[in-house]
């Protein structure tokens, strides 16, 4: 294995026992989490689970009721936003509408120059650094436009440029792709991953989209109702979800679940194999019979929703496998190694 697999990176950000209440809403109910240095950490979870509140706390825009927050080993719980080496990109990008692209991107540096005449960046340095990030993000030809004259994807890149031009050690992105259409989202995901590699900074991104989370994260944190449900390598979370919530939240179509003798058996739709009554069932494999209720064509195959003895399940059929129609009977086997078992409390069983 690579050295990075053996020696975990030291945490860049650590939250320990962090709670936050808004009125009667317990937004964070004792959060413990670590963001490995240099990682692209994605915090994902259903709406209202506390993702944005965590990001705002790391940025210093909100404070915990109790618990501690460390950045690069320092306890910054009581430190103001301006005293943390952190930049945040907001969901709506929050660009200044009356300023050009160049003005928006250079704003923070110009402010620094004004406040720290001696140590702040000079005019030439500002121009050079703005030029550098504009080249990195392909904004060279848009410097004199105002935000209203830009597409959604271009606005997002300006917001990113404005954040990274300050060269923060830690970059926070709150739902950075939510304003983009699906096609732009795919290229923006790749862009953010590239940016992360090239900058070498720690990046924390918040999203409610599990696909975005799985495809971008080097470190994934799944939240549920104000606590961390599971964290780790995305592949590990997908293959060994610690409970039913993580199991069904990650992956589409979602994991099928069957109640059998007090145990809940889970399998991912793509792990099922169509079988006939003549086929034998491999040892330890799971077998379920159903009747096809509806089919969805996906281009390279189909998703068949079936009614079984203990509820509905979805089967993924690939090109070349037998084509299913509503009313057909479906027999599915799932290899033992692809089965997940959960106890009555939803926790994964060994
Ligand atoms: P979403 O994906 O919808 O943005 P989220 O996971 O980011 O959700 P948060 O914005 O962190 O969730 O909110 C967590 C909980 O705290 C929610 O129940 C929300 O209604 C509540 N909350 C957040 N900010 C405030 C506030 N300023 N006043 C009152 N309640 C708040």
Automatic annotation (TrEMBL):
Residues 13-250 form the ABC transporter domain. SUPFAM superfamilies: MOP-like, P-loop containing nucleoside triphosphate hydrolases. Keywords: ATP-binding, Cell membrane, Membrane, Nucleotide-binding, Transport. This is ABC transporter ATP-binding protein. It comes from the Bacteria. It comes from Myceligenerans pegani. GO terms for molecular function: ATP binding. The keyword Ribosomal protein does not apply. The keyword Nucleotide-binding applies.
């Amino acid at each position: 294995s690579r050295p990075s697999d053996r020696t975990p990176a030291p945490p860049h950000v650590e939250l320990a026992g962090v709670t936050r209440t808004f009125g009667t809403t317990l937004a964070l109910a004792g959060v413990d989490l670590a963001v490995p240095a240099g990682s692209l950490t994605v915090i994902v979870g259903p709406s209202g689970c506390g993702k944005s509140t965590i990001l705002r706390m790391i940025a210093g825009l909100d404070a915990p009721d109790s618990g501690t927050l460390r950045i690069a080993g320092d306890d910054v719980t009581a430190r103001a936003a301006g005293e943390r080496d952190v930049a945040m990109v907001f969901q709506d990008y929050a660009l200044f509408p009356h300023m050009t692209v160049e003005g928006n991107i250079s704003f923070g540096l110009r402010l620094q120059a004004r406040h720290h005449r001696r140590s702040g960046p000079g005019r030439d340095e500002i121009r050079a650094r703005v030029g550098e990030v504009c080249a990195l993000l392909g904004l060279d030809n848009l410097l004199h436009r105002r935000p209203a004259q830009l597409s959604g994807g271009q606005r997002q890149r300006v917001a990113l440029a404005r954040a990274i031009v300050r060269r923060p050690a830690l970059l926070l992105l709150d739902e950075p792709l939510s304003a983009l259409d699906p096609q732009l989202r795919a290229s923006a995901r790749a862009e953010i991953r590239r940016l992360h590699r090239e900058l070498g900074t720690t990046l924390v991104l918040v999203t409610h989209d599990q696909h975005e989370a799985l495809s971008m994260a080097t470190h994934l944190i799944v939240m549920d109702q104000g606590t961390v449900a599971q964290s780790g390598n995305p592949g590990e979370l997908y293959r060994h979800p610690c409970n039913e919530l993580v199991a069904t939240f990650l992956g589409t179509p979602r994991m099928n679940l069957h109640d059998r003798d007090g145990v809940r058996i889970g399998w991912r739709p793509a792990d099922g194999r169509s079988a006939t009554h003549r086929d034998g069932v491999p040892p330890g494999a799971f077998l379920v019979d159903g009747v096809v209720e509806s089919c969805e064509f996906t281009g390279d195959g189909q998703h068949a929703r079936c009614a079984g003895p203990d509820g509905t399940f979805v089967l993924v059929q690939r090109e070349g496998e037998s084509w299913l129609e509503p009313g057909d009977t479906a027999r599915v086997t799932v290899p033992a190694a692809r089965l997940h078992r959960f106890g009555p409390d939803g926790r994964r069983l060994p």
